[in-house]
Amino acid sequence: MDPFAAMNVVGLLAFAVAGSLKAADAGLDAFGVTVLGVVTALGGGTTRDVLVDRIPASLATTGDVSVALVGVALAVLLIRRTPDHVRVRDTPAFLVSDAVGLAAFAATGALVGTGAGLTPYGVVVLATVTAVGGGSLADLLVGRVPVVLREDFYATPAVLGGVAFWAVGSLGGPSSVQAGVCAGLVFATRMLALRYDWHLPRIRVEGGGEN
Amino acid sequence: MDPFAAMNVVGLLAFAVAGSLKAADAGLDAFGVTVLGVVTALGGGTTRDVLVDRIPASLATTGDVSVALVGVALAVLLIRRTPDHVRVRDTPAFLVSDAVGLAAFAATGALVGTGAGLTPYGVVVLATVTAVGGGSLADLLVGRVPVVLREDFYATPAVLGGVAFWAVGSLGGPSSVQAGVCAGLVFATRMLALRYDWHLPRIRVEGGGEN
Amino acid sequence: MDPFAAMNVVGLLAFAVAGSLKAADAGLDAFGVTVLGVVTALGGGTTRDVLVDRIPASLATTGDVSVALVGVALAVLLIRRTPDHVRVRDTPAFLVSDAVGLAAFAATGALVGTGAGLTPYGVVVLATVTAVGGGSLADLLVGRVPVVLREDFYATPAVLGGVAFWAVGSLGGPSSVQAGVCAGLVFATRMLALRYDWHLPRIRVEGGGEN
């Protein structure tokens, strides 16, 4: 299995779970849960493919949607076991699946960017956009401000992963090692940031308040 | 008139009406009504064209915007005849025009997907995305959860229409018959689902509640 | 400096400022302010490039993000000097930077559209979409109805600028003069509309009210 296919399957499964859990929190019924799971799984990769001018994999193969539907089914099992008063997106199941999706899609973005001949800079940007794209779209669709704007260690791990991908490559590492290091670093950074409540150094911004 | 041009005109008119009515419900004034009508009419087709890597028709020809503006004008007449306390999107005028747009754009998506050499699977996905794209964008812009997430017989008719398009084609039907059967099935399924309150079989999802 | 590069730098700076100020109003912290500033700056141009099927400049060069970050830094200085109870988006700093971004990006859209061989009509549409794209995306992300739907003299100046770009070109003006006239007209029309509360002639729409 080539590194893209492996990371793609993991990312599709994980983001389908995360997206379905978000939909349940928003009070959507089974159909809405299914659609949002599939859209979350396919959103980042479709954006990635449009940006580098290739026909999105979501249109070209049945595999991606099938994998996403397996993820939705897993999520439905989780949702049915969660007590009514618990917000699903605060559960470890959500946080871990979201972090796995972030990590795996950062790696697919970096792989596609490299394949499309982007500069190292472009590879890092594409890794980040691919990683945060699906979850941001899901948040928008249920009417929430996307997590990428609310938490500093959501995009930051993806940026670090993109840089690591490039660094390993420039040391001569094969693409499977690049992808593995990238995904591992994104996942570890995201989980540690959640566990220890990491934040970037603050430049205090005042004058806020809700709109 | 080739089948694409015919379906495109019908879809642009119908979705311009539907989008304008949504804008009126959201309290937008005449300018907002016009912009949302045009964006709803052009949104699905532009997404379709970007996905198969061609310059969107909305950029290449004045015809599409002109047709959309005719639809906006029709909608303004409807809006002025609606009493103040009625939500326009509960009226038959909205539900029918939205179903016509869904049907016509499913057919254009299937035609473009076939022309771009997509697999049968890709044709069905593109038909669905083209059909639900404009309305979803309109809902997002006025701050509502898109209807595609809230009603199971919104995307489902488009999927069925895409499958019918492929089935008729594999039986040797010409593209005009394919497009007609696709659009007719989408429209009929959507209207019947609204009339008889159809739902997909429920997998009960609990743990919901507003976010 | 060619006209595209000049307009691009001005637009990136101005929209990074405007986007950051919107984020502060929405109560986002320093990281959210930075991300929204960068997304606002890059959003319109990325949409423009995807529509004409070229790899977005935001992926191909470090320059665009660097300029956007300078704009974010300027915005943070402004935000820290604004008293807590003032909504930043009502300040002249916001209104002027937003109008400058609108003007400069209308010019880049017209220049790219001409370079891509679009018809005069397509050039006007691309100028408009490029101009209003970044701000609309920013509004969506913080959960507001985009200004393009709420104010009639937001898209209208961009349309006028696109028409002026074409008119100057058809009189034989070089592209730097086209771009300058386009941007100047957009900026002047937008500021005058704000100052004198201009509106398009009203076609009264009733039946509204919040959804």
TrEMBL record, chains A, B, C:
InterPro entries documented for this protein: Gly_transporter
Any Pfam family the entry gives: Gly_transporter
Predominant localisation class: membrane
Domain Glycine transporter: 7-78, 96-168
Signal peptide bounds: none
Protein's membrane topology: Multi-pass membrane protein
Keywords, comma-separated and alphabetical: Cell membrane, Membrane, Transmembrane, Transmembrane helix
Coiled coil: none
Gene Ontology CC: plasma membrane
Transmembrane regions listed in the UniProt entry: 57-79, 91-112, 118-141, 153-171, 177-194
Origin superkingdom: Archaea
Compartments, record wording: Cell membrane
Name of the featured protein: Uncharacterized membrane protein YeiH
Source organism of this protein record: Halogeometricum rufum
Lineage per the UniProt record: Archaea, Methanobacteriati, Methanobacteriota, Stenosarchaea group, Halobacteria
